[in-house]
Structure formats: structure tokens, C-alpha cells
Design goal:
The chain is α/β, with parallel strands linked by helices. The chain is 44% helix and 17% strand. The protein has a 5-stranded mixed beta sheet with strand order 4-3-5-12-6. A 5-stranded mixed beta sheet has the order 9-8-10-7-11, sandwiched between helices. A two-stranded antiparallel sheet has the order 1-2. Belongs to the LysR transcriptional regulatory family.
Length: 277
């Protein structure tokens, strides 16, 4: 016999003075409430309710045990609430600043369907996990990068080479945002530029994405970015045939189950946050 379930029936009937009304309050049939109270009486060894009149009343035995039954129900309710809170304990995840809010919201919603309650931040914390940049060949998520501009997209880095007739000119610049100012991206871009005849000043690491995007939006310069970023900024994007580079990401730290969920069950929504179309 389930003591908690039977005690709920006992307390409800005693409170309302009726098996019918007490059962309705619990959303169970009257016959079920009657059986549960009878089972509790048999288990405890005495009659809890006096059924001799139209209105059900407590027996002296029942009056003495009613407070204990009420405490048992409160403890059971508290246990269930604590269990729910434990299941909803947030999993703190640091995400790159480039992640758009709409994609992050969809990630949080998708995670909840798998019982994972994400608490996201762009500021790294010691008590959580983080999506970190890694070389694309070891990345769980890989985001292809290309060249974005206001005008026609550039498909080859060599097209940025200054004209020979203008030996002193700087030429169009290629801006690298902070997210890509890491060796496995930046160094590849610099090597590609040198191999195709670009001047060193044409490849510029920016202090912020806003700065880099503003330079591309206000002139002929280009922004190294993902297709999703270019679309958000209103820039025209194309992969560069002579610049095979990408962002790689993995998630580190945290309980193994949550990390596995992010890498597998939530692989697609995490990818959308990072710029994978």
C-alpha cells in the first residue's frame, strides 16, 4: 500500500466531510477514495472515519492520526518539489559573443526538452562548461569562413591584390574579427595573403566585431566571417577558393552526461548559435 496516496485520500475526505467531495478534490472516483481509506485503516489497525451518518466525521483514532497524515503529505510534496528543482539545476555554459540571441533562445528551449536547463553567458566562469575555439580538424562543430562585402562578394583572396599601377596603394583590406584572431585562422589567412601578393597592411585584426563590420559596411573592405554573420550584417558572402579556413569549436568541462547531450542531442541548435547554417 502507498501510505502517501492513502493518506491523501484520508485527509481530503476528512477535510470535506464526504467521500464524494473529497474524491472530487483529488480527481479520483469515489470508490477509489473509499478503497484507499479502507486500506489505510487496515494498515494502521483502526477506523479513521465514522461513516454512520450522512456526513463523514473523524473517529477519535482518526483525529489523533490526522496531523501525522498531513505532515506526511507535506513532506512528500516537499520531496517532489526538491526533486524537480534538482532536475532543473542550471548547467552553466559560456558561449562565444558572436552567438545571436535568437539562436541562443532556441538552444535553451531545445535543451529543456532533453531535461537540460542551460544558463548561458559570454563571460567565462570557473563553475561551468564553455564552447571554446579549437582547430577545425578536431572541432565537434566546424563553421566555414568566407569573405563578405557590401558589393559583389570576392571568391579569391588574390583578387584583393593591389594593382601594379598603384605600387604605393594599400588596396582593399581584409578584417579579422576577434573570434578569428586565433592561430589556426589568423595564420592561415596571413599565409594565404602573402602567397597571393597581398601587402601585410591589408590583413587587419580588429578590436571588435563591430569595428570590423563597420569597416566592411562603410567602404570596399571585406570581413572574414561565416555566412550566417554576413546575412545578419547585410553583407554579401562567398567562400574564398584559395582560403580554406574555418572555425572549430568543442565544449569543455562539466559533467559528462551534459557534455554528451550538447555534442549529440543538441548538436544542431548549438551549431546554429555558432553560425552553421
Amino acid at each position: 500500500m502507498d501510505l502517501v496516496v492513502a493518506s491523501r485520500a484520508f485527509v481530503a475526505v476528512a477535510r470535506h466531510g464526504s467521500f464524494t467531495v473529497g474524491a472530487a478534490a483529488l480527481h479520483i472516483p469515489q470508490s477509489v477514495a473509499s478503497r484507499r481509506v479502507s486500506a489505510l485503516e487496515e494498515h494502521l489497525g483502526g477506523a479513521l472515519l465514522d461513516r454512520s451518518s450522512r456526513t463523514v466525521t473523524l473517529t477519535p483514532f482518526g483525529a489523533g492520526l490526522l496531523p501525522a497524515a498531513q505532515r506526511l503529505i507535506r513532506l512528500a510534496d516537499t520531496l517532489e518539489l526538491d526533486a524537480e528543482r534538482a532536475r532543473r539545476r542550471p548547467f552553466r555554459l559560456t558561449v562565444p559573443a558572436i552567438c545571436p540571441p535568437a539562436a541562443l533562445a532556441r538552444l535553451v528551449a531545445a535543451a529543456r526538452t532533453h531535461g537540460l536547463h542551460l544558463e548561458l553567458s559570454t563571460v567565462e566562469r570557473a563553475d561551468g562548461a564553455a564552447l571554446i575555439a579549437v582547430p577545425p580538424d578536431v572541432g565537434v562543430w566546424v563553421v566555414p569562413l568566407g569573405l563578405a562585402a557590401v558589393a559583389e562578394p570576392v571568391t579569391h583572396v588574390e583578387n584583393l591584390r593591389p594593382a601594379k599601377a598603384d605600387p604605393g596603394g594599400t588596396g582593399r583590406r581584409l578584417w579579422i574579427q576577434p573570434e578569428d584572431d586565433v592561430p589556426h585562422v589568423r595564420d592561415r589567412v596571413i599565409r594565404a595573403g602573402a602567397a597571393t601578393g597581398l601587402r601585410p597592411a591589408q590583413i587587419v585584426p580588429a578590436g571588435s566585431l563591430v569595428e570590423a563590420a563597420a569597416e566592411a559596411l562603410s567602404g570596399d573592405d571585406l570581413l572574414l566571417c561565416s555566412a550566417a554573420q554576413a546575412a545578419d550584417l547585410g553583407l554579401r558572402w562567398a567562400p574564398a577558393a584559395d582560403l580554406d579556413t574555418a572555425r572549430g569549436y568543442d565544449v569543455t568541462a562539466g559533467p559528462r552526461a551534459e557534455l554528451t547531450a550538447l555534442r549529440t542531442l543538441l548538436h544542431v541548435p548549438v551549431g546554429h548559435c555558432l553560425g552553421i547554417s
